[in-house]
What we know:
Layout: H1 2-33, H2 35-38, E1 45-47, E2 50-52, H3 62-71, H4 88-99
Bound molecules: heme C.
Amino acid sequence: MKNICIILVFVMLVAAPLSLWSAEEGAAVFKSSCSRCHGENGEGKTMGTMKMPAVKGTKTSADKLVEYLMKGETDKKIHNKPVSGLSEEQAKVVADYVINMK
Ligand code: HEC
């Protein structure tokens, strides 16, 4: 029992900074790769005649978002190809960031 407690404490100590790190990393990726279209806080915006949808409050799951960002969907205007310069790792942290946006 004592061992389990020690392991639990250890896991919590290691995991807390890790999740903090990925939230910060997600924010950084969002700021550099997405915010110019989707707005600082994911609220969306209009650029010229083009409407950029809000991403805040999306119903899409993190996994689907990663796929969307890495592959794109042919019927889209912007996301018809992968987001350039985005690694899969970055896609994961930014997807996580987007679904948790408030
Ligand atoms: C050049 C502008 C632009 C950039 C950069 C961009 N997007 Fe988009 N995004 C759009 C547009 C426009 C749409 C609407 C679909 C389409 O036509 O591609 C969209 C749609 C989306 C959607 C679907 C909205 C929904 O919930 O149905 C998500 C999610 C999304 N973008 C996330 C991102 C993320 C995350 C990034 C950064 C890695 C990003 N986008 C970068 C313009 C952009």
